[in-house]
Design brief:
The chain has nine helices and eight strands. It is α+β, with helices and mostly antiparallel strands. The two termini are 33 Å apart. The model is unreliable at 1-16 and 167-171 (pLDDT under 50).
């Protein structure tokens, strides 16, 4: 199961609001906290012994600090399933349709239990339904045939199917804040700047 779930830097993040709250309330985030968070992101977060070894501190210290950051709501972690390891592929489908037939269209574009989520959007394309499907590669052509059939029957306005790529989010500029914290912890509180943070 471990190889199916991957922990990558993009999936472990700090909540901006929680961190600002932490700084406003003067929660004691020191150099060690920042280094633990940095290694927590770049390493497997469950590997506390590796983080402790790299920092030259005890496992209990690392475990305590991670639990404290979690309790404060500063640190969140989530896992993303690696569908390729399961022999599946993720696709995003955009379908245009009428707002007056929203319930009907939602029902016909999610008839099989291979979809993960469905949202509706209103924008320059009109009323759009966005669905993410997870299915075996052999089922992609069947999915396209089904939506072409819906299109031919004028059940939907149009559809676009895209293979979903890997999720990515911006990593934090750790060096900037670790260097400030090494000078004096007050530098972090006085010079919190999101332009430098990212």
């Amino acid at each position: 199961m471990r190889e199916v779930i991957s922990y990558t830097p993009g999936y472990i993040y700090l909540r901006k609001e929680k961190l600002l709250y932490a700084f406003e309330k003067f929660i004691d985030l020191d150099v060690l906290d920042l280094k633990i968070i940095e290694l927590f992101i770049s390493s497997n977060p469950r590997n506390i012994s590796s983080i402790a070894e790299k920092l030259g501190v005890s496992q209990q210290t690392v475990s305590y600090r991670i639990n404290r950051l979690d309790r404060l709501g500063v640190l969140d972690c989530r896992a993303e399933i690696n569908y390729e390891k399961l022999g599946l592929e993720a696709y995003t489908l955009l379908v245009t349709g009428s707002l007056s037939e929203q319930n009907y269209i939602e029902a016909i574009i999610t008839p099989i239990p291979l979809w993960r989520y469905l949202i509706t959007l209103d924008g320059y394309m009109g009323h759009v339904f966005l669905v993410e499907y997870v299915l075996p590669p052999s089922g992609v052509e069947d999915l396209k045939m089904y939506f072409n059939w819906l299109l031919d029957r004028n059940e939907i306005g149009s559809f676009y199917l895209y293979k979903t790529t890997e999720f990515f989010s911006t990593n934090i500029n750790w060096d900037y804040y670790i260097k400030l914290a090494e000078k004096d912890k007050k530098y972090i509180l006085d010079r919190f700047d999101w332009n430098q943070w990212l």
